[in-house]
Specification:
- The protein is mainly α.
- Helices cover 50% and strands 0% of the residues.
- The longest helix is centred in the N-terminal third of the chain and has 51 residues.
- The chain starts with a helix and ends in a 49-residue tail after the last helix.
Length: 102
Amino acid sequence: MNSDRVDEISALRAQKKLDREAEVEAREAKEAEEAKSHAANMARIAKKMARIEAGNNAVAEEPAEEPALKPATEKKNPAVEKPAAKAKGRTKGRPKGSKNRR
């Protein structure tokens, strides 16, 4: 084998090793974040369960945001006259479905 080829192979192996280590670190960080989130959820659930068992059935832990109400629209007065509809005139061009082509 060529010495350049051996150097390339060893460099690739070293790079693959670094990539695997980076993947392991990323996976561990993601798992730690998920575990932290899960622990927070379990603590919240335990708090609710304790409150329910104590007889406090008030489930509202945090005040829920009220939906934004739409502004009241003005009612239209039916007595107001509508503008007259436009009279249909003759259309230009050949009628739809017509077979008489030029």
